[in-house]
# Entry
Amino acid sequence: MLQETNAELETDELVPPAEPKAGHAPLDAAVETQQDLSAEIKSIGEAYAQALKGGAPAEIQPRLDYPPYRSSILRHPTKDLHHADPETIELYSPAFGHQDVHALESDLTIQHNGEPQGERIIVTGRVLDGDGRPVAGQLVEIWQANAAGRYIHKRDQHPAPLDPNFTGVGRCITGPDGSYRFTTIKPGAYPWKNHLNAWRPAHIHFSLFGTEFTQRIITQMYFPGDQLFPLDPIYQTIVDQDARDRLVADYDHNITQPEWALGYNWDIVLTGPKRTWTENEALGTAGDQSE
# Structure
């Protein structure tokens, strides 16, 4: 069973409208730079490494408050949780959609009249519980930026082109073996407003529902070898390198299709010490201890 979260589909990473020529404007000396943020990230990482040497347990989930990620305090509950009537919650929860999930919805490259721009990829894997058992019949949704790093979203106004043949949203149901599979376009990196010259590594957002609409987790999948990893405060909120690595898909030549698409494999583990990082953990580290 998936853990309950209060996550929303829209991402807070998206930014207010930006001026196309903002990059050519004189720099404000008071604006924090990537160098400033990188120094903070390095300091936190070194402190964590020392704590591990002293016998502290590994942190497999992100820190709720991570100073280099300036808005992290806004992305989790700050007050005690209240019990709610599940039937009442169901009235306001996300719905699967207006119709049954069709097999073609997992191919994000055929949703319009033309071919989308960018590098075609296949992303597949399995949804597993903490004991490695497959979790079948789960709704998996993805959303992502296009090849230029642009979302079709009113808050994303940075000067990168939209692709009329790419919406960036897909869904599927896991099979009996817990497997999912998407055909899509590799997303591009994009800027955000955490600090001066802040860029997010290429990633795909994943949403998984449990047996009810109120059971939902959200996470992100990254691509191997991205040079923005050490610079990204969101990726670095997970201070343990092994836990971070579990967010990175593996290139798989057996999944790659000749003259068609590169293949990536990424499993999602729902529980246990090797579980996949998820956004908006309501219980924080207490949630890890309760599993």
In short: The first strand starts at residue 120 and ends at 128. The longest helix spans residues 34-53.
